[in-house]
Amino acid sequence: MEQINEQISQKSGREYGVEDTIIKDLPNARKVLDFETLKNNTKKKGSLIKLSHQLNIEEDTLIRAINEAKISALFPGILKSKADPLSRIKVQRELELFVKYNNIHKLEVRHLREAILKWNKNLEENPRILLTELQHDLIIGSTLGDAYVRQREKNCNLRIGHTKAQEEYLLWEYNIFKEFTKSKPIWNLRKLNSHIIETLELATFTHPVFNYYRKLFYDRFGKKKVTRQILDLLSPQSLAIWICDDGSYDNRQGYIVLCTNSYSLGEHQIIKEYFQEVWQLNPTIGFRDKKYYYLRFKQGDSKKLIRIIRPFMPNMMKYKIGEKNG
Fold first, then answer.
1. The pLDDT of residue 140
2. Is the pTM of this model over 0.85?
3. Structural domains in the chain, sorted by start
């Protein structure tokens, strides 16, 4: 930070004719600041806001300056005019993949922007171009459970929350999606059935890959739904994650209950049929509190289900299948 302050004092606003001129564009910012030093001194959103005030530079211009430094470091010799469109690709692994299929040095800036728009459209239709198998399975399994794919202005993001008892599990999920986040999970208070509970919440930034899952899981009114199309995407791994979210194990009677309370009777019938046809399991549809449906697997089916998902259960969630956590 001291290095940046020295720069700004050595190259003052006198160069612009006004001592306290606010820097609003990159050409003027380049005259005053070393973008590489900026990049290395702004790790958090709070430090960025503070720095913009200290250096008398608009926050948006500061962000673009930092992005320019990042892109220039990754791709030496790249035209500065290409830094802004390339910086819109937020995930490092995604940027490397995009560059693999697009010659960014030869593309004109206009064509580069068009290529990025096309790339984003492809990700909306086939997110597995970018997502790992575990990331995809985590979205499918957790969104069948308690996770939420939220629609923002243009793109969507993924939100997952768990109570203190499942803090370790939430951090496991965070590590899987860390590259899609700007900050660590945070504790929040929320109301559940007239009770205030504390939850640890993970929120990704918005990204085109999540748009696919928003369209898959929600109707036009924003209500989550279950369809056979969704269920057919389940693998043993994503099924295990669904059990981690919605499952419970009755240690006394030795069976698994899937607490799918938010789904309708018709949707439970779809789920029951899916388990019958795909996994040869025959869960019973239960009804409680005069308003909630759930699925219960008999002892024999519970044992079979456990054999299917055990290899994919995170160690801290083994209690969901009647075993000690690893």
1. 98
2. yes
3. 1-87 (no CATH), 226-326 (3.10.28.10)
